[in-house]
Amino acid sequence: MKFRYNDKWLRIIGYPLLGFVVRHFGEYESIGTLMKQPLYYGDLAWNTLLVALSWEANRRLIIYLDAHYSWINNRFQRFVTQAFASLIITVPIVAAMIYLWNEILIERPNNFNTGYLLVYDFPLTIVFTLLVHMIYTGMYFHKYYSQTIEGLHNRVRELETSVAGVKSSSDLIKSSGYRDLLIVNYGTSSVPVQTNDIAYIYKQNEISFIKTSDGKEYTSSGSLEALEDLLDPETFFRLNRQMIGHVKAIKQFKSDTTGKLVLEMMPVFSEEVTVSKKKAAEFKTWIGRKI
């Protein structure tokens, strides 16, 4: 994960501030005495440049590692890589800058020696590098969790908008309270089916099967009685104990010699579908309202 750090003012303030700290680390003379020495201001400027170069090198390292080793998913690898790489980058820069200033530019003798580097400059380099990396690590986690929270808020808003849209278009529940959408089973998955797409629902071996107008078939764990309660009686009719039919699924019907109604369903059902003589009049009244 790659971040863009808004650290412009942090660096503008941090360079001279840490340059001042580096110059005065291990210094015994007072600031008043030092300010009377012209070379003191050159030291401050050079140390500020040293800090800027080291900071920028570590900053580029951090940005590179952000793109390759996530603090979230590769925490240990990121820590080890960043710790070693930062020292490998920073120590040569500090040593080279100190040598260049003291031994070449101002020819100040005895200021670049192994003892001084180990006692003063090396520990200071460790502290400086640690401080810079702690700052950027804190910024990394702040940005990461801020973006995560913002993403969750956006997702919640999308869901709220989606639910509002569904409700406003009656995708789930009609104003009458009956369902316009059922969650049914297709294999091991659950899928939504518009009730207006259902041709009929039938029971077989205690399982409810939902047949849609395009011939697809689903199952439901609900009984016919439970499903009937969810469906609008204006468009669905309990044809018999084994089936509920949608008005659009009834292609035609006729009476037999016993007074029962024999229905032809679309899509075609594998068995004969009948409405009992007792319910025939009710069925005709119901379907008559649809013609």
Task: Give a quick summary of the entry.
By secondary structure, the protein is α+β, with helices and mostly antiparallel strands.
Structure explained in plain terms:
- This protein has 291 residues and is of the alpha+beta class.
- The chain folds into two domains: 8-164, no CATH class; 183-288, Beta Barrel (OB fold (Dihydrolipoamide Acetyltransferase, E2P)).
- Helix content is 54%, strand content 18%.
- The protein contains seven helices and ten strands.
- It has helices spanning 8-24, 31-34, 38-68, 75-105, 114-168, 224-230, 277-288, and strands at residues 181-186, 189-194, 198-204, 207-212, 217-220, 236-240, 243-246, 250-255, 261-265, 273-275.
- It has a five-stranded antiparallel sheet, with helices on one face. Strands 8-9-10 form a three-stranded antiparallel sheet. A two-stranded antiparallel ribbon has the order 1-2.
Secondary-structure element pattern, one letter each: HHHHHEEEEEHEEEEEH
Structural class, from secondary structure content? alpha+beta
**Strand content of the residues, in percent?**
15-25%
Average pLDDT reading: 84
Shape: rod-shaped
Query: How many separate helices?
Result: 7
Please outline the major beta sheet.
Answer: 5 strands, antiparallel
Distance between the termini: 62 Å
Low-confidence stretches: 163-171
Overall number of strands: 10
Question: How many structural domains in the coordinates?
Answer: 2
- The rounded Rg comes to 40 Å
Helix content: 40-55%
**Adjacency order of strands in the biggest sheet:** 5-4-3-7-6
